[in-house]
Amino acid sequence: MKHHYGRRTAVAAAVPAALGHPQGVARVQSVLRCALVVLLVVEASVFPDRHNVAAGNALIAAYGVWSVLRLRAVWREQTHPRLIWAVLIVDLAVLVGLVVLTRGFPVPETSLALIDDAFFVVAMMASFQLQPRTTIALMTLTASVYLAAATGAGAGPRSLLAALMHTLFLVTVGMACALTSWVHRARVQTINTLVKDRSQLLIEVLNVEERERSTLAEALHDNALQSVLAARQDIEDARAATSPAESLERAERTLTDAARQMRSVAAELHPAVLENLGLAGAVRAAAHAAAERGAFSVDVQCKEGLHHPQQQLVFTAARELLTNVVKHAAAQHVTVHLTGHAGSILLEITDDGRGITHSAVQAAPAAGHIGLASQRIRIENADGTLTLTPATPHGTRAVLELPPPAL
């Protein structure tokens, strides 16, 4: 089977890299930073009675200009994503400097100091990084620097107690932001995995016609065509023989076998095979056809009368699993068991071949072998499971389970 690596790369490139993308995170942080500047300006206007007013206002103005320039650079993608954490350190330094300059620590008697509340915004901006450990580290640094600055400001015991409580709230909010970052990171990774799986499934759909043609060509070449060529040789021998009866009989038997093989291939590939044979008959026919192609013995036990809305999925998965046995297992014997109970379906295919490792299964889609992965996606979408485990003493055991259909 041919694998379109170029097309696979193109589809993979279409996976939304915007999920947790550093550039998007930087833009969100820049918007929050500008909002923080607005809050600082409003507070400086509403509560002008502060220490070092001129120096504090100058620092706010410089911080505002820098924030706007940062927003402009980020929006034009003129900044490196690795600068995000360095920028957060700048935010922390500016806020600490502003609090120290204006002595904006909480004073229980007045409760007018609000500048230190801006430290909570740093926690929120850090959470967008989707890196919980780094978020915790930054918030630990923020709380430590804030508490050290408050202690060194020479405030009274009540103010220090209020600063300590403010630090505890800051740590709590930082932990909450880290947990939020962890949850969103897990969700982003899950979504990204699902998108990649769906992209691989799309490739499988695009290649399904070529795969079926390749399967048909292999089946005809390895079985029916070889029988026809053997029959032709028997006929040529009959022409040259003085007693052609024996050669003609061999040719007749060979052509009869070729006809049977072609009917088997047609029955396996025809979309109406389930309607004509039922699920048990279709799986049985696929197993015997695979046994002929792979030159192994097969033991088939299929419960008759099984019906399920997803029986086409079961049959397709059975063909894919048997094809893998033919191509890769080098098996001598294969067992196929199809059972069901109360509307559920259980398919077990076990071979005594060379087996397959978990790492090989995981690496197969990256190498372009996505037939088994696409089957697993389809089965999981139908609320079923497909598991591969080592067989005893060697080989592979594949188990497909589908639950009863929903009422």
UniProtKB/TrEMBL annotation:
<keyword id="KW-0808">Transferase</keyword>
<dbReference type="InterPro" id="IPR003594">
    <property type="entry name" value="HATPase_dom"/>
</dbReference>
<feature type="transmembrane region" description="Helical">
    <location>
        <begin position="135"/>
        <end position="155"/>
    </location>
</feature>
<dbReference type="InterPro" id="IPR036890">
    <property type="entry name" value="HATPase_C_sf"/>
</dbReference>
<dbReference type="InterPro" id="IPR050482">
    <property type="entry name" value="Sensor_HK_TwoCompSys"/>
</dbReference>
<dbReference type="GO" id="GO:0005886">
    <property type="term" value="C:plasma membrane"/>
</dbReference>
<feature type="transmembrane region" description="Helical">
    <location>
        <begin position="161"/>
        <end position="183"/>
    </location>
</feature>
<protein>
    <recommendedName>
        <fullName>Histidine kinase/HSP90-like ATPase domain-containing protein</fullName>
    </recommendedName>
</protein>
<dbReference type="GO" id="GO:0016301">
    <property type="term" value="F:kinase activity"/>
</dbReference>
<feature type="transmembrane region" description="Helical">
    <location>
        <begin position="83"/>
        <end position="105"/>
    </location>
</feature>
<keyword id="KW-0418">Kinase</keyword>
<keyword id="KW-0812">Transmembrane</keyword>
<keyword id="KW-1003">Cell membrane</keyword>
<keyword id="KW-1133">Transmembrane helix</keyword>
<dbReference type="Pfam" id="PF02518">
    <property type="entry name" value="HATPase_c"/>
</dbReference>
<keyword id="KW-0902">Two-component regulatory system</keyword>
<keyword id="KW-0472">Membrane</keyword>
<feature type="domain" description="Histidine kinase/HSP90-like ATPase">
    <location>
        <begin position="309"/>
        <end position="406"/>
    </location>
</feature>
<dbReference type="GO" id="GO:0000160">
    <property type="term" value="P:phosphorelay signal transduction system"/>
</dbReference>
